[in-house]
């Protein structure tokens, strides 16, 4: 691990079974990064508590998500994969970082305002401090890189500011300012063709769906709205089905759809069937591996426990330096 180019940290809320949006936006990249970086991937269950009104599904969602990550190729031999609450040092660091973070800065953040608008009945203290906990997640492991989309840039800038405030306040260099590792991800929308793919909007396609379910979801996809009849020429540039073809189909198939759609040579039904077939082919090895892993759920929990044990070693080392820098007795 020491030969690697740097340390990457990324976290995601336990949302259960993952979908194509998760795969293209994060998981695929997580798997690729393992080759060159020391990677730490965290299922951030404490973050989830800021918005969850019941924890009934939390454990199952954590399990399903870990299962998908592992089946997709996150390798516990190469990377640390663990659950946030299993490393309590993050809560301690969160508290110390909160002392150097002005409250106004947090309440001014657009993400906080948006959340407060979404859940006006539950604007809790944890929700305000969310970005501070996120900063603690990253800097606890002295990660220098955080893989993000460009829309996440303000969060990383915020984390850097908190680190600078801490280091300045205590005259130390203990904490490292993380940097963004921006990754280009295809803009794949949900099957409604309108919004980002998301479970809560029920416009998603699950990675672990059966081939039949996948075909059914693809058949529901909204296409070029101007193409009403089979004989109308379409415009693949505005069609989400074509966007997915560009990710999952062979170059000659992409070229064919690009030409035939425009001259009504191919109908949307056939175009979608082709996409569903390619999607199912692409996901077949994942689904096979997932089914194998699912035969023994205890293995998944053990991987998470071992990951947390490794994470705690790094975390405790950082915390000893942090406590000393602050001057805690
Ligand atoms: Fe979209 Fe394919 Fe229909 Fe063209 S033929 S509008 S690319 S689904």
From TrEMBL:
Cell compartment(s), UniProt: Cytoplasm
Record key words, sorted: Aminoacyl-tRNA synthetase, ATP-binding, Cytoplasm, Ligase, Nucleotide-binding, Protein biosynthesis
UniProt entry tagged with the keyword ATP-binding: yes
GO terms of biological process kind: tryptophanyl-tRNA aminoacylation
HAMAP family given in the database record: Trp_tRNA_synth_B
GO MF entry, a single one: tryptophan-tRNA ligase activity
Entry's family note: Belongs to the class-I aminoacyl-tRNA synthetase family.
Binding site for ATP: 13-15, 21-22, 149-151, 188, 196-200
UniProt enzyme class: ligase
Recorded GO CC terms: cytosol
UniProt-annotated binding residues for L-tryptophan: 137
EC number: 6.1.1.2
Main location: cytoplasm
Record's catalysed reaction(s): tRNA(Trp) + L-tryptophan + ATP = L-tryptophyl-tRNA(Trp) + AMP + diphosphate + H(+)
Motif ('KMSKS' region): 196-200
Pfam families (alphabetical): tRNA-synt_1b
Subunit structure: Homodimer.
Annotated motif 'HIGH' region, positions: 14-22
SUPFAM superfamilies (UniProt xref): Nucleotidylyl transferase (SSF52374)
Record carries keyword Transmembrane helix: no
Protein name (Swiss-Prot/TrEMBL): Tryptophan--tRNA ligase
Species for this entry: Thermanaerothrix daxensis
PANTHER family, alphabetized: TRYPTOPHAN--TRNA LIGASE, MITOCHONDRIAL
Described function: Catalyzes the attachment of tryptophan to tRNA(Trp).
């Amino acid at each position: 691990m020491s030969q690697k180019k740097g340390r990457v940290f990324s976290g995601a809320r336990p949302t259960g079974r993952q979908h194509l949006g998760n795969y293209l936006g994060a998981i695929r990249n997580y798997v690729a990064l393992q080759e060159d970086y020391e990677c730490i991937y965290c299922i951030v269950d404490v973050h989830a508590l800021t918005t969850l009104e019941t924890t009934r599904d939390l454990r199952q969602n954590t399990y399903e998500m870990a299962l998908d990550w592992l089946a997709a190729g996150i390798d516990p031999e190469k990377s640390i994969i663990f659950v946030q609450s299993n490393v309590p040092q993050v809560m301690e660091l969160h508290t110390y970082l909160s002392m150097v973070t002005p409250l106004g800065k947090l309440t001014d953040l657009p993400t906080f305002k948006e959340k407060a608008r979404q859940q006006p009945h539950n604007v809790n203290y944890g929700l305000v401090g969310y970005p501070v906990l996120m900063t603690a997640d990253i800097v606890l492991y002295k990660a220098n890189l955080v893989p993000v989309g460009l829309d996440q840039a303000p969060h990383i800038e915020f984390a850097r500011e908190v680190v600078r405030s801490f280091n300045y306040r205590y005259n130390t260099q203990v904490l490292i300012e993380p940097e963004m590792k921006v990754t280009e991800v295809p803009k794949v929308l949900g099957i409604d063709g309108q919004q980002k793919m998301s479970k809560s909007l029920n416009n998603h396609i699950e990675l672990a769906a059966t081939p039949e379910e996948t075909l059914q979801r693809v058949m529901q996809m909204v296409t070029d709205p101007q193409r009403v009849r089979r004989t109308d020429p379409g415009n693949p540039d505005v069609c989400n089905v074509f966007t997915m073809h560009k990710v999952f189909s062979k170059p000659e198939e992409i070229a064919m759809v690009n030409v035939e759609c425009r001259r009504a040579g191919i109908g949307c039904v056939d175009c979608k069937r082709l996409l569903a077939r390619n999607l199912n082919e692409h996901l077949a090895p994942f689904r096979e591996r997932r089914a194998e892993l699912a035969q023994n759920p205890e293995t998944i929990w053990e991987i998470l426990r071992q990951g947390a044990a490794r994470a705690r070693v790094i975390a405790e080392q950082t915390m000893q330096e942090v406590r000393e820098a602050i001057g805690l007795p």
